[in-house]
Amino acid sequence: MSVEVDFRRITTKTLQVLKHKGIKITALTAYDFITAKLLDNAGIDLVLVGDSLSNVFQGNETTLPVTMDEMIYHTKAVCKGIERAMVVVDMPFMSYQTNVDEAFRNAGRILKETPAGGVKLEGGERVAESIRKITDAGIPVMGHIGLTPQSIHQFGSYKARGKDIEEADQIINDAVVLEQAGAFAIVLEKIPMELAEKVTKKLKIPTIGIGAGMHCDGQILVTPDMLGLNVNFHPRFVRHYAELAKTIDSAVRQYIEDIKNNQFPTDKESY
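User: That's the sequence. What structure does it adopt?
Assistant: Structure tokens below.
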């Protein structure tokens, strides 16, 4: 059953209200104007300009190569298509890991140069000081713990995190620390459903799951994955709500055939 929520503009306060009322938060990624406009028109609550654009837009194997300039460029395009949803921007690799002051400057740059409503940082306790300084300046920050793709070379694989007691306890601790540092929400990526439920119940701020089960306050997926555009990526947590790769292939093949057979353009399609 679809739950209609009449909010003219989604903000950090709105997300808090949704958690309090037990209404699930919906989130997807966007990297361009047209996609952002379609998502916004459909009623999505939160649009993440994710560093996943490194994978699905630029064709890189990891999220690491994308730069601040590129994130800002894509965010400007996305925001032009948004009227209702909250837009959050991933801070790319090495834009906040060096020191607190650099993290603060880069977060400020994103909000100064784009109309975005907040930024997202990966990591737990180690980024808490940066989150505290950024939020103290009035910049909303979303946390991200569990599997953090920017740390892929440290992890060595994209397997689920938090399966052993020690790592699960660390994830819970990280979540609490990020909330205390001022984060307005936390993404929980690829952790056991029971662990995500514990974290969600422990926090006053919303949790947004990706591969973390049904008990999070909301869910996010990478839009090209959800739409069936990324045919070579089949993680168990992605549900295909469309098969657009097949639709596009069929359309392009028909277009080619029509041109080859002089079926396009017709007189009606000519001046």
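Residues 165-181 form the longest helix (17 residues).
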